[in-house]
């Protein structure tokens, strides 16, 4: 009996260790077009229903400096200036999501950058028709996440386990 008890505890511990190891965070923001069109609730709801936990949430109007920092990897590209102008044209809603393989799963859920080509069922595929006004942004790697969320959130704004 005792050995079964020990086995159970070990498996439970292993499960929670694996869960802990596969937990990942990603940074997302709904762009001014998504906010203006009233898509915030719909978009947050998709992520919540999928099983992600919202760890931080903020509505704000980006400054030009913040937008340039967020998109620093695109500096010098032909679309950079217009992109900065667009994401500072109205408020955004930014959040941090946590869950299994969050970066990859969220990127799949938002769909291709060019909303005209995004698959139906994805956020851009269902609500967009443009490559610039494409509703939503999500980090494409752990490195991007580490750089991007710090532009918007302080560490003390991220909620610990709940
Ligand atoms: P996002 O996923 O936020 O990352 C960079 C953004 O640049 C992209 O979505 C688009 O909104 C914007 N963008 C505008 N033109 C282009 C382009 N030609 N190629 C890629 N991204 C573009």
The residue fraction in helices comes out at 40-55%
In total, the number of strands is: 4
CATH class: Alpha Beta
The order of strands across the largest sheet is 2-3-1-4
Structural class: alpha+beta
Within the CATH hierarchy, at the fold level, what is the topology?
Answer: Alpha-Beta Plaits
What Rg do the Cα atoms give? 18 Å
- Give me the CATH superfamily: Nucleoside diphosphate kinase-like domain
Portion of residues in beta strands equals 15-25%
This entry's quaternary arrangement is: single chain
How much is the average pLDDT? 93
The number of helical segments is: 8
Q: Summarize the main sheet.
A: 4 strands, antiparallel
Unreliable segments of 5+ consecutive residues: none
Gross geometry: globular
In this entry the ligands are:
adenosine-3',5'-cyclic-monophosphate
In angstroms, what separates the terminal alpha carbons? 34 Å
Question: Can you walk through the features of this model?
Answer:
The protein has a single domain (23-157), classed as Alpha-Beta Plaits, CATH 3.30.70. 48% of the residues lie in helices and 17% in strands. It has eight helices and four strands; from the N terminus they run H-E-H-H-E-H-H-E-H-H-E-H. It has helices spanning 2-22, 32-36, 40-50, 64-70, 80-87, 102-110, 123-127, 142-152; strands at 23-30, 53-60, 92-100, 136-138. Strands 2-3-1-4 form a four-stranded antiparallel β-sheet, sandwiched between helices. The model has no long low-confidence stretch (mean pLDDT 93). Adenosine-3',5'-cyclic-monophosphate (CMP) binds at residues 74, 79, 83, 113, 131-132, 134, 137.
